[in-house]
Amino acid sequence: MAAAAQLEDVPNESLFSELLRRMKCAPKPEKRIILVGPPGCGKGTQSPIIKEDFCLCHLATGDMLRAAVAKQTPLGLQAKAAMDKGELVTDDLVVGIIDEALKRPSCSKGFILDGFPRTVVQAEKLDAMLETQGHKVDKVLNFNVEDSVLEERITGRWIHPGSGRSYHSKFAPPKVSGIDDVSGEPLIQRKDDTAEVLKSRLDAFHKQTTPVIAYYSQKGIVVDLQAEKPAKDVTSQIEKALS
Ligand code: AP5
Q1: Is 136 a catalytic residue?
Q2: How far apart are the first and last CA of the chain?
Q3: How far apart are CA 152 and CA 170, in angstroms?
Q4: pLDDT, tens digit (0-9, with 9 covering 90-100), for 56-82
Q5: Which of 123, 163, 171, 196 lies deepest, with the highest CB count within 10 Å?
Q6: Is 56 helix (H, G, I), strand (E, B) or coil?
Q7: What is the reported pLDDT for 2?
Q8: Cα angle at 114 between 112 and 119, to 5 degrees?
Q9: How far apart are CA 43 and CA 111, in angstroms?
């Protein structure tokens, strides 16, 4: 009843476009996908395209944690120090966030997990969560990029904080420098997007996340992507992998 009352204030155009989206999505098959790769490999760039094509919910633990930090919630306060240093936050903290988010109605037909799981413990806990619902991970997209390419990608990235839209000063520039194409609002650079913090983030990736790829390889569900190629080529590789 409360939800129905809230809908009364939603403009007609928004209701119709959501209705059309749901009709388009109804026949699409369920899919549960994980994106894994080092910082700046393109997970956040490709996720909105996969979300749109396959009608999945997109859960990015980095975005969720940054939102909690910005709101200064207890969770955000716990996560901030590790994030600023480029270290991973605790498994319990991120597993709790994902467990909660997977219950959203928009995730009922599947999901794209972007930045989770990042440790084998997280992967095991995710499997256990899905098992209770009779589900499993279908595919793990492994974004392969040499470390040497990532510094330029990370230090040139600009973000629209409201939507998470990301740009790059050289590879994907906005129409007007420093301004979001859609909202006209200013773009910002992430606090951890420096060459110095990138070193710790890469270290965390190689030590703690590479074993996650081995964990899913044993299950035969990893697809290797050549993520050094231009973004459009990576999108084509993903479409092929998921079709
Ligand atoms: P998170 O936000 O997940 O950061 P990340 O994994 O380091 O990934 P990024 O967002 O930096 O990179 P991306 O792959 O999305 O790259 P993008 O597409 O934007 O995590 C941040 C922090 O949160 C962590 O350090 C940790 O502290 C914490 N955290 C999060 N999840 C956690 C977990 N599960 N457990 C514990 N802690 C956790 O691309 C980068 C740039 O390159 C963009 O400017 C883009 O335009 C450009 N670009 C993209 N693709 C291409 C291409 N093909 N060619 C040229 N340029 C490209």
Answers
A1: no
A2: 39
A3: 9
A4: 999 999 999 999 999 999 999 999 999
A5: 123
A6: coil
A7: 61
A8: 115
A9: 14
What predicted TM-score, i.e. pTM, was given to this entire model?
0.93
Residue 149 pLDDT greater than 80, yes or no: yes
**223 to 54, 169, 241: CA distances (angstroms):** 17, 29, 7
Burial, 2: exposed, middle or buried (Cβ in 10 Å; 0-12, 13-18, 19+)? Answer: exposed
SS3 at position 109? coil
Whether residue 32 contacts residue 136, with contact meaning beta carbons closer than 8 Å, is answered with yes
65 lines ligand 1 (CB under 6 A): yes
Positions of E strands within the chain: 31-36, 57-60, 110-114, 139-144, 157-159, 166-168, 222-226
Tokens at 9, concatenated: 């204030």
User: How far, in Å, are 44, 77, 98, 107, 139 from residue 112 at the CA level?
Assistant: 11, 26, 11, 9, 10
β partners of residue 110: 31
201 as an active site residue: the answer is yes
pLDDT at 4 over 70: no
For ligand 1, whether the C-beta of 40 sits within 6 Å is yes
Q: Give residue 202's identity as a one-letter amino acid code.
A: L
